[in-house]
Design brief:
The protein is built from 6 helices and no strands. It is mostly helical and 161 residues long.
Length: 161
């Protein structure tokens, strides 16, 4: 669970870093396409990720708390038994995809690259890339929430046959 919260913080930090990197990549980049256009794309994506991660993390914490209470797990049992619900092969794959998308966004303008007016369509490419990141993050949270909900339902059915 802590790893999930750290990932949200890492996403905010990385998206902010990418934004700053692009803004500082050269004056011709800003003059050709407008610094504010690219900044706005990153700011909107970052805001969406922060909002989603905050909201979904709160929901996951509440579901995990419910599961722990239903199962009557000690803190140690909870860490062992709930860990696979928040860190498993599929969730690690979502994380890997997010890292790859963030790396692509970080490399987007390339260091020192100058975009001419004809290349300003790259803003749409950036929007698409960041939309993929947002969707991947949404799918990860949905997958995690579904797994926890199934565990809760299973625990309820064993308690009340």
């Amino acid at each position: 669970m802590l790893r999930q919260m750290e990932m949200g913080g890492a996403l905010r930090l990385l998206v902010g870093f990418v934004c700053l990197s692009l803004l500082g990549s050269g004056t011709s980049f800003a003059e050709s396409c407008g610094r504010d256009v690219f900044s706005d794309v990153f700011n909107k994506a970052s805001s969406e990720l922060v909002r989603m991660n905050s909201k979904r993390a709160t929901g996951v914490k509440l579901k995990l708390k419910e599961l722990k209470a239903l199962a009557s797990w000690s803190d140690q049992e909870f860490l062992v038994n709930a860990s696979p619900l928040v860190k498993n092969e599929q969730i690690l794959e979502f994380d890997s995809q997010s890292k790859a998308l963030l790396a692509s966004a970080a490399d987007f303008g390339g260091s020192g690259t100058t975009l001419s007016r004809g290349e300003c369509g790259k803003v749409d490419e950036l929007r698409a890339l960041l939309s993929l990141l947002i969707e991947n993050t949404r799918e990860k949270w949905s997958f995690m929430e579904k797994g926890i909900s199934v565990a809760i339902a299973n625990m309820k059915s064993t308690k009340n046959p």
